Amino acid sequence: MKKIFALLALAGVANLSVAAEVVGNAANARAKVEMCIGCHGIPGYKATFPEVYQVPKLGGQSAKYIESALKAYQKGERKHPTMQGIAASLTEQDIADVAAYYSQQK
Ligand code: HEC
């Protein structure tokens, strides 16, 4: 099941087909995490610019934690201007995909 889903995702058709239920798909996240990498480092790794500020490591954190953190930035419950802006640009599906992706990193 997972394999098929990943193949569909690679073919670019899964995006529309899962509108009913938001299920995180790590394979779908690759393009989406490109904009995270500059700050959160290589996936699964740590801060790229520690001399500017400490950026939390995302790889290996639980999907639930990443999801709730991003939603908290969206709602303004967590206050960090950059992350609020970034979270605001993500859809619920994007968040689920990104959370799945990072939770599978070691
Ligand atoms: C411009 C730099 C920058 C970019 C780009 C960026 N982040 Fe962040 N991110 C940060 C910083 C700095 C923090 C810590 C903010 C704080 O203290 O609340 C953070 C925090 C987070 C957290 C909370 C982590 C924790 O342990 O509490 C998550 C989740 C997160 N970012 C996800 C993402 C995702 C997903 C992307 C890409 C879609 C992304 N970030 C892009 C700088 C960035």
TrEMBL record:
Cytochrome c domain span: 19-106
Molecular functions (GO terms): electron transfer activity; heme binding; metal ion binding
Domain of life: Bacteria
PANTHER family recorded: CBB3-TYPE CYTOCHROME C OXIDASE SUBUNIT FIXP, CYTOCHROME C4
Keywords recorded for this protein, A-Z: Electron transport, Heme, Iron, Metal-binding, Signal, Transport
Name of the protein: Cytochrome c553
Cleaved signal peptide residues: 1-19
